[in-house]
Design goal:
heterodimer; A: 264 residues; alpha/beta; four-stranded antiparallel sheet; B: 260 residues; mainly alpha; Multidrug efflux transporter AcrB transmembrane fold; 2 domains; 0% strand; coiled coil (chain B); transmembrane (chain B); UPF0014_fam (chain B); Iron export ABC transporter permease subunit FetB (chain B)
Chain lengths: 264, 260
């Protein structure tokens, strides 16, 4: 393990709290485009929170705020009860890992890629036989004989799982994922989903997952947030929200055939 | 000077040399190659420009106050900064400030070390040495730093995914741009390394040739050339390094976010 101090939110508060967050951005023609407005939700330890909605609705912009790849225009985000705006961004990102939409593999073997987060922290790098590497590979459903392979020669599905493994090898308390299954076919996507569920349960992580894939959300999410045009239209336990959608927006979204129809 | 076998070129010798230009003009005229007028103009311009710079150098070399010599160096640096700025297609954020301070510290430092300790003439501001030496170091360093700046801009533009992936895994900005920095530094050094590799085989360097023609022993001229190439390499490396170390920070916000 990496000696990362565990974050214990005071008074049983959720791990991540997003409070009244708004985001506006210059649209290049001198006007301000509203990306997000008044977004409030929280994500708890050991639970998977899915942010679902049509593309262009602000989902990706939203999770980029949680590890401060960008900053919100209004509102604040708390990690373990502490405002992230006051934290050292480096320490924040070492606690809140993120897997971007397109898996980027650094040159070198899969093992090199897995060692990178530890190299960044100037910590001892685990070798191929170490408990950390074995355990992470197992959780991500990657075969150990892939370790010495050139990471860029892996299939896209393996690369997705490799970037998941790379993000969790340091056991961060929070994990953010942007469309982790967008490039995957259904069986490969299911493998990734199972891996994600294992990791979340085993390590007690708070997982926040952005997806437009309702099937995936229905399968693994504990909590679900429906985001459209920058606003939360509906939120609650995933099973409940998907079974009995209340907002007109979500009902319309669920009815669109290209979303895979009903959740799985 | 002519006691060491140096042949001074008199005006009559020069006129004879010009006969070669007339020959070239005549050749293109009678063979209907149509370049006669261009050759004439080019030759005339060259004469006027060189006479002007000859007088200017004569004037500059007679300057004996350190402040004045130093200000000439600053003007030279300013001109080269302006040239670099006008040639850069896409400039990094804060281009002039980053470039200017790197040139000042990098070239200035290396020139001082070279002039004061390696060549060791006195006084240190003797313009006959200081100005041409600084000029050579400056010209090469500016070229190197420009290449580094241009490459860094391109690399960071192309590697946004890689850089943000690294940030997401807990990298510092410096760690996240490591590959971009390495490629940019290498781009800065390549012309100098190529020149060094070809030196003496493919090309005889201009400075050495000039010294030999004006009567210096080849062995001495070679030593000078070696020393100068060391100074140029040092200047290029120092200036490009300073530029990159200041430059990459400009692509990040204080919260270590990659700027859009």
């Amino acid at each position: 393990m990496t000696g990362m101090a565990e974050i214990v939110p005071p008074n049983g508060q959720p791990m991540v709290q997003v409070e009244g967050v708004g985001l506006t951005r210059a649209d290049g023609q001198g006007r301000e485009a509203v990306i997000l407005s008044e977004v409030t939700f929280s994500a708890a330890k050991g639970r998977i929170t899915a942010i679902v909605g049509p593309s262009g609705g602000g989902k990706s912009s939203l999770i980029r705020l949680i590890n401060r790849l960008d900053d919100p225009t209004t509102g604040c985000i708390l990690l373990g009860g502490e405002d992230i705006a006051g934290m050292d961004p480096l320490l924040l990102r070492r606690r809140v890992a993120m897997v971007l939409q397109r898996p980027f593999m650094f040159p070198g073997t899969l093992l090199h890629n897995l060692q990178r987060p530890l190299a960044y922290r100037r910590e001892a790098m685990p070798d191929a036989g170490s408990v950390e590497v074995r355990r992470t590979l197992e959780l991500a459903r990657l075969a150990p004989d892939l370790l010495e392979r050139d990471a860029r020669s892996l299939s896209i599905g393996q690369q997705q799982r490799a970037s998941l493994a790379r993000a969790v090898i340091t056991s961060p308390p929070v994990l953010l994922l942007d469309e982790p299954t967008s490039a995957l076919d259904r069986p490969t996507g299911d493998q990734l989903a199972a891996a994600l569920q294992d990791i979340c349960r085993h390590q007690g992580m708070a997982v926040i997952l952005v997806t437009h894939d309702l099937r995936l959300a229905g399968k693994i999410a504990d909590d679900l947030i429906y985001l459209e045009a920058g606003r939360i239209r509906e939120a609650g336990p995933a099973a409940h929200v998907l079974a009995e959608p209340a907002s007109a927006e979500l009902i319309r979204f669920l009815a669109e055939p290209e979303k895979g129809g009903k959740h799985g | 000077m002519d006691n060491r076998g140096l042949v001074n070129l008199e005006l009559s010798n020069l006129l004879l040399a010009f006969a070669l230009i007339l020959f070239a003009m005549a050749l293109s005229r009678f063979q209907r190659l149509g370049q006669a007028r261009k050759i004439g103009w080019a030759a005339l311009r060259m004469v006027v420009q060189l006479l002007a710079i000859g007088y200017l150098l004569h004037l500059v070399f007679s300057v004996k106050t350190p402040l004045l010599v130093t200000s000439i160096l600053v003007v030279m640096a300013g001109f080269s900064l302006q040239v670099a700025g006008s040639q850069a297609k896409r400039k990094m954020p804060g281009f002039y400030r980053v470039m200017g301070s790197s040139i000042l510290a990098g070239c200035g430092g290396v020139t001082f070390f070279f002039c004061a300790l390696v060549v060791g003439y006195s006084p240190w501001y003797e313009p006959r040495y200081l100005i041409p030496l600084f000029g050579m170091i400056l010209g090469n360093s500016m070229q190197g730093a420009s290449l580094a700046a241009e490459r860094l801009e391109a690399e960071i533009g192309e590697r946004r995914e890689e850089i943000e992936t690294a940030l997401c895994l807990g990298a510092t900005p410096r760690q996240a741009v490591e590959t971009a920095l390495r490629n940019a530094f290498s781009a800065a050094l390549i012309p100098t390394l190529n020149t060094m590799a070809a030196m003496g085989i493919v090309s005889l360097p201009g400075m050495m040739t000039g010294q030999i023609l004006s009567g210096t022993e080849p062995a001495v001229a070679v030593r000078y050339q070696i020393a100068i190439m060391c100074a140029v390499s040092g200047g290029v490396a120092a200036t490009a390094f300073l530029l990159l170390m200041q430059g990459y920070r400009r692509y990040f916000t204080p919260a270590q976010q990659l700027r859009r």
